[in-house]
Amino acid sequence: MGNKQKLEMEEESFIKSHHIEELYARAKSVDPQLWPTLMGVAEHYKEYANFCQAIVQNTVVQLLNEENKGIHSVRSRVKEVDSLLEKIVKKKAYLSQEPQDDYEIEKYRPLNEQNYYKIITDSNFPYQKWERSLINQYF
User: Fold this and answer.
1) Which residues of 105-137 are buried (b: 16+ CB within 10 A; e: fewer)?
2) Which pLDDT tens digit goes with each residue over 117-132?
């Protein structure tokens, strides 16, 4: 089986396993390069998520060990890669064929593996200013 066939099977499997057939079709009509974009995001996010998780762990340790005696527990989450990809599909599915004036919708149109983490900000956590610059420096 060639790489193209394998990617097509993976694409079909992803769509069916997330039950997003209609959304995916709409998103792909707006962004014909949707699947390669999703694969690029997935590849980059695997490393980025590990980096975010390390920052989360460091921040939790700082919060619990410092003078924050009132803090006794902290919850955190770093989005799973499939969940991120599904969110991208859903956001792109709401785009019209022609660009509109609504920034909150249109910000997803140029989304790709180089900028997704700046556009989808719930995939990580609110981080301190120095951590933001560190993330931007490496990603």
Assistant:
1) eeebeebbbeebbeebeebbbebeeebeeebee
2) 889 877 544 444 445 5
